[in-house]
Protein backbone atom coordinates (compact mmCIF):
# COMPACT_ATOMS: atom_id res chain seq x y z
CA UNK A 1 0.00 0.00 0.00
CA UNK A 2 1.43 3.36 -0.98
CA UNK A 3 1.50 6.12 1.55
CA UNK A 4 -0.25 9.47 1.53
CA UNK A 5 1.93 12.15 -0.02
CA UNK A 6 1.10 14.69 2.68
CA UNK A 7 2.44 12.51 5.47
CA UNK A 8 6.09 12.33 6.56
CA UNK A 9 8.08 9.28 5.46
CA UNK A 10 8.50 8.27 9.10
CA UNK A 11 7.06 9.32 12.41
CA UNK A 12 8.33 7.83 15.67
CA UNK A 13 6.53 8.57 18.92
CA UNK A 14 8.18 7.82 22.24
CA UNK A 15 9.95 4.63 21.17
CA UNK A 16 11.23 2.69 24.15
CA UNK A 17 13.13 -0.60 23.97
CA UNK A 18 14.28 -2.69 26.89
CA UNK A 19 16.33 -5.87 26.79
CA UNK A 20 15.69 -7.53 30.14
CA UNK A 21 16.22 -4.74 32.65
CA UNK A 22 18.32 -2.58 30.34
CA UNK A 23 16.56 0.34 28.68
CA UNK A 24 18.40 0.66 25.38
CA UNK A 25 16.07 3.24 23.78
CA UNK A 26 14.58 5.69 26.26
CA UNK A 27 11.86 7.55 24.41
CA UNK A 28 12.73 8.49 20.82
CA UNK A 29 10.55 11.02 18.97
CA UNK A 30 11.40 11.81 15.35
CA UNK A 31 9.91 12.75 12.01
CA UNK A 32 11.65 12.15 8.69
CA UNK A 33 10.29 14.18 5.77
CA UNK A 34 9.63 12.94 2.24
CA UNK A 35 12.88 12.77 0.33
CA UNK A 36 14.92 13.67 3.37
CA UNK A 37 18.34 12.15 4.10
CA UNK A 38 18.62 11.67 7.86
CA UNK A 39 21.78 10.31 9.49
CA UNK A 40 21.85 8.69 12.93
CA UNK A 41 25.19 9.11 14.64
CA UNK A 42 26.40 8.17 18.08
CA UNK A 43 28.92 5.99 19.84
CA UNK A 44 28.96 2.22 19.65
CA UNK A 45 26.19 0.71 21.77
CA UNK A 46 24.00 3.85 21.88
CA UNK A 47 21.07 2.08 20.19
CA UNK A 48 21.41 3.03 16.50
CA UNK A 49 21.01 -0.48 15.09
CA UNK A 50 18.27 -1.33 17.56
CA UNK A 51 16.27 1.71 16.45
CA UNK A 52 16.75 0.83 12.78
CA UNK A 53 15.72 -2.77 13.36
CA UNK A 54 12.58 -1.60 15.14
CA UNK A 55 11.68 0.74 12.27
CA UNK A 56 12.25 -2.16 9.85
CA UNK A 57 10.09 -4.50 11.95
CA UNK A 58 12.97 -6.93 12.59
CA UNK A 59 12.48 -6.29 16.29
CA UNK A 60 9.52 -4.97 18.30
CA UNK A 61 9.58 -1.81 20.38
CA UNK A 62 8.64 -2.19 24.04
CA UNK A 63 6.36 0.85 23.73
CA UNK A 64 5.73 3.76 21.38
CA UNK A 65 4.35 3.97 17.85
CA UNK A 66 5.76 3.96 14.32
CA UNK A 67 4.13 5.41 11.21
CA UNK A 68 5.61 4.99 7.74
CA UNK A 69 4.04 7.31 5.18
CA UNK A 70 1.24 8.07 7.65
CA UNK A 71 0.35 4.41 8.18
CA UNK A 72 0.74 2.72 11.57
CA UNK A 73 3.02 -0.28 11.09
CA UNK A 74 3.17 -1.70 14.61
CA UNK A 75 2.88 -5.47 14.22
CA UNK A 76 3.17 -5.28 10.41
CA UNK A 77 5.75 -7.72 9.03
CA UNK A 78 8.98 -6.24 7.58
CA UNK A 79 8.16 -7.06 3.95
CA UNK A 80 4.92 -5.06 4.17
CA UNK A 81 6.26 -1.91 5.81
CA UNK A 82 7.37 -0.16 2.63
CA UNK A 83 11.00 -0.11 3.74
CA UNK A 84 14.19 -1.70 2.44
CA UNK A 85 17.26 -2.16 4.59
CA UNK A 86 20.92 -2.33 3.59
CA UNK A 87 23.23 -3.90 6.16
CA UNK A 88 26.93 -3.68 6.76
CA UNK A 89 27.28 -7.39 5.98
CA UNK A 90 25.50 -7.68 2.69
CA UNK A 91 24.86 -11.45 2.75
CA UNK A 92 24.32 -12.18 -0.94
CA UNK A 93 23.26 -15.68 -2.01
CA UNK A 94 26.40 -17.25 -3.52
CA UNK A 95 24.52 -19.60 -5.85
CA UNK A 96 22.45 -16.81 -7.42
CA UNK A 97 23.66 -14.36 -10.05
CA UNK A 98 23.74 -10.63 -9.39
CA UNK A 99 20.41 -10.30 -11.19
CA UNK A 100 19.02 -13.27 -9.26
CA UNK A 101 20.05 -11.73 -5.95
CA UNK A 102 18.53 -8.38 -6.84
CA UNK A 103 15.21 -9.87 -7.93
CA UNK A 104 14.85 -12.51 -5.22
CA UNK A 105 12.54 -10.65 -2.83
CA UNK A 106 10.29 -9.63 -5.71
CA UNK A 107 10.06 -13.24 -6.94
CA UNK A 108 9.16 -14.35 -3.43
CA UNK A 109 6.37 -11.77 -3.42
CA UNK A 110 5.03 -13.28 -6.64
CA UNK A 111 5.75 -10.33 -8.93
CA UNK A 112 5.60 -11.02 -12.70
CA UNK A 113 8.94 -11.82 -14.34
CA UNK A 114 8.72 -8.99 -16.87
CA UNK A 115 8.17 -6.46 -14.07
CA UNK A 116 11.06 -7.91 -12.03
CA UNK A 117 13.40 -7.86 -15.04
CA UNK A 118 12.48 -4.24 -15.70
CA UNK A 119 13.16 -3.18 -12.13
CA UNK A 120 16.42 -5.13 -11.89
CA UNK A 121 17.70 -3.67 -15.13
CA UNK A 122 16.78 -0.12 -14.07
CA UNK A 123 18.51 -0.52 -10.69
CA UNK A 124 21.54 -2.14 -12.35
CA UNK A 125 21.79 0.87 -14.66
CA UNK A 126 21.69 3.28 -11.73
CA UNK A 127 24.43 1.33 -9.94
CA UNK A 128 26.68 0.61 -12.94
CA UNK A 129 26.02 -3.11 -12.53
CA UNK A 130 24.39 -3.76 -15.91
CA UNK A 131 27.44 -5.61 -17.26
CA UNK A 132 27.64 -7.81 -14.15
CA UNK A 133 24.10 -9.17 -13.95
CA UNK A 134 25.12 -12.74 -14.88
CA UNK A 135 28.05 -12.92 -12.45
CA UNK A 136 28.02 -14.69 -9.08
CA UNK A 137 28.91 -12.78 -5.88
CA UNK A 138 32.27 -14.60 -5.61
CA UNK A 139 33.28 -12.99 -8.93
CA UNK A 140 32.72 -9.44 -7.61
CA UNK A 141 34.82 -6.98 -5.62
CA UNK A 142 33.68 -5.86 -2.17
CA UNK A 143 32.43 -2.56 -3.54
CA UNK A 144 30.47 -4.29 -6.30
CA UNK A 145 28.86 -6.62 -3.77
CA UNK A 146 27.79 -3.71 -1.65
CA UNK A 147 26.25 -2.11 -4.76
CA UNK A 148 24.29 -5.33 -5.38
CA UNK A 149 23.01 -5.12 -1.81
CA UNK A 150 21.89 -1.54 -2.48
CA UNK A 151 20.31 -2.70 -5.75
CA UNK A 152 18.36 -5.31 -3.85
CA UNK A 153 16.84 -2.46 -1.84
CA UNK A 154 16.19 -0.20 -4.85
CA UNK A 155 14.17 -2.79 -6.80
CA UNK A 156 11.63 -2.85 -3.99
CA UNK A 157 10.84 0.83 -4.60
CA UNK A 158 10.52 1.45 -0.86
CA UNK A 159 8.94 4.39 0.92
CA UNK A 160 12.05 4.58 3.08
CA UNK A 161 15.59 3.21 2.78
CA UNK A 162 17.43 2.16 5.94
CA UNK A 163 21.22 1.84 5.85
CA UNK A 164 23.09 0.39 8.83
CA UNK A 165 26.77 1.34 8.52
CA UNK A 166 26.82 0.14 4.90
CA UNK A 167 30.42 1.21 4.27
CA UNK A 168 32.18 -0.04 7.36
CA UNK A 169 33.47 -3.23 5.68
CA UNK A 170 35.00 -1.33 2.76
CA UNK A 171 38.50 0.10 2.58
CA UNK A 172 39.00 3.86 2.82
CA UNK A 173 39.08 4.71 -0.90
CA UNK A 174 36.06 2.58 -1.65
CA UNK A 175 34.22 4.10 1.30
CA UNK A 176 34.52 7.54 -0.22
CA UNK A 177 33.39 6.34 -3.67
CA UNK A 178 30.42 4.44 -2.31
CA UNK A 179 29.43 7.38 -0.14
CA UNK A 180 29.36 9.63 -3.20
CA UNK A 181 27.33 6.96 -4.99
CA UNK A 182 24.76 6.85 -2.19
CA UNK A 183 24.43 10.65 -2.26
CA UNK A 184 23.85 10.49 -6.03
CA UNK A 185 21.24 7.75 -5.62
CA UNK A 186 19.44 9.84 -3.05
CA UNK A 187 19.25 12.73 -5.50
CA UNK A 188 18.22 10.59 -8.47
CA UNK A 189 15.62 8.50 -6.64
CA UNK A 190 14.31 11.38 -4.53
CA UNK A 191 13.81 8.77 -1.82
CA UNK A 192 13.67 9.12 1.95
CA UNK A 193 16.72 7.62 3.61
CA UNK A 194 17.93 6.92 7.13
CA UNK A 195 21.61 6.19 7.35
CA UNK A 196 23.41 4.97 10.45
CA UNK A 197 27.10 5.61 10.93
CA UNK A 198 29.60 6.33 13.66
CA UNK A 199 31.69 8.29 11.14
CA UNK A 200 31.37 12.06 11.53
CA UNK A 201 32.56 12.80 8.00
CA UNK A 202 29.92 10.52 6.47
CA UNK A 203 27.31 12.19 8.63
CA UNK A 204 28.38 15.76 7.81
CA UNK A 205 28.59 15.14 4.05
CA UNK A 206 25.47 13.03 3.51
CA UNK A 207 22.87 14.39 5.89
CA UNK A 208 20.06 16.86 5.38
CA UNK A 209 19.64 16.43 9.12
CA UNK A 210 21.69 14.60 11.72
CA UNK A 211 20.20 12.86 14.75
CA UNK A 212 22.78 12.54 17.52
CA UNK A 213 22.01 9.56 19.74
CA UNK A 214 23.66 8.82 23.05
CA UNK A 215 22.66 6.23 25.61
CA UNK A 216 19.25 5.66 24.05
CA UNK A 217 18.14 9.28 23.83
CA UNK A 218 18.32 11.97 21.14
CA UNK A 219 20.87 14.58 22.19
CA UNK A 220 20.18 16.90 19.25
CA UNK A 221 18.60 16.95 15.79
CA UNK A 222 19.57 19.48 13.17
CA UNK A 223 21.29 20.34 9.94
CA UNK A 224 25.02 19.51 9.92
CA UNK A 225 25.98 23.19 9.88
CA UNK A 226 23.74 23.95 12.85
CA UNK A 227 25.09 21.09 14.94
CA UNK A 228 28.58 22.19 14.06
CA UNK A 229 27.99 25.85 14.88
CA UNK A 230 25.52 25.47 17.74
CA UNK A 231 25.95 22.11 19.45
CA UNK A 232 23.36 21.69 22.21
CA UNK A 233 25.90 20.35 24.68
CA UNK A 234 29.45 19.14 25.14
CA UNK A 235 28.65 15.66 23.93
CA UNK A 236 27.41 16.92 20.55
CA UNK A 237 30.29 19.37 20.33
CA UNK A 238 32.80 16.59 20.98
CA UNK A 239 31.16 14.23 18.56
CA UNK A 240 30.58 16.55 15.62
CA UNK A 241 33.52 18.84 16.19
CA UNK A 242 36.31 16.28 16.32
CA UNK A 243 36.32 13.99 13.31
CA UNK A 244 38.66 11.01 13.62
P1 LIG B 1 24.75 0.59 18.10
O1 LIG B 1 24.19 0.11 16.81
O2 LIG B 1 24.51 2.05 18.34
O3 LIG B 1 26.21 0.27 18.26
P2 LIG B 1 22.97 -1.35 19.28
O4 LIG B 1 21.63 -0.84 18.91
O5 LIG B 1 23.49 -2.49 18.50
O6 LIG B 1 24.01 -0.15 19.31
O7 LIG B 1 22.95 -1.80 20.80
C1 LIG B 1 22.49 -0.95 21.83
C2 LIG B 1 22.58 -1.68 23.16
O8 LIG B 1 21.62 -2.73 23.19
C3 LIG B 1 23.92 -2.32 23.42
O9 LIG B 1 24.24 -2.18 24.78
C4 LIG B 1 23.69 -3.78 23.08
O10 LIG B 1 24.54 -4.61 23.82
C5 LIG B 1 22.23 -3.97 23.47
N1 LIG B 1 21.55 -4.99 22.65
C6 LIG B 1 21.35 -4.94 21.31
N2 LIG B 1 20.67 -6.02 20.88
C7 LIG B 1 20.44 -6.78 21.99
C8 LIG B 1 19.78 -8.03 22.21
N3 LIG B 1 19.21 -8.70 21.21
N4 LIG B 1 19.73 -8.48 23.48
C9 LIG B 1 20.29 -7.80 24.49
N5 LIG B 1 20.93 -6.62 24.36
C10 LIG B 1 21.00 -6.11 23.12
MG1 LIG C 1 25.09 -0.85 15.17
UniProtKB/TrEMBL annotation:
Extract the GO molecular function terms from the UniProt entry: ABC-type maltose transporter activity; ATP binding; ATP hydrolysis activity
Record keyword Iron present = no
Q: Which UniProt keywords apply?
A: ATP-binding, Nucleotide-binding, Transport
Using the record's annotation, list all stretches that form the ABC transporter domain.
10-240
Name residues in a coiled coil.
none
First-listed, main subcellular location of the protein, grouped into a coarse class:
membrane
Q: What is this protein called?
A: ABC transporter ATP-binding protein
Give the organism, scientific name: Plantimonas leprariae
User: What part of the entire protein does this chain span?
Assistant: 1 to 244 of 341
Amino acid sequence: MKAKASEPALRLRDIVKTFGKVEVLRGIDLEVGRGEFVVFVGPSGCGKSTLLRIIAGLDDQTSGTIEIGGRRVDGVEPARRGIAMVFQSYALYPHLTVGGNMGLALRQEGMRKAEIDGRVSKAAGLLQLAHLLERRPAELSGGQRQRVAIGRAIVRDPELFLFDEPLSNLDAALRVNTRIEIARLHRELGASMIYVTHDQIEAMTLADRIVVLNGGIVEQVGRPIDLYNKPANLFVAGFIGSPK
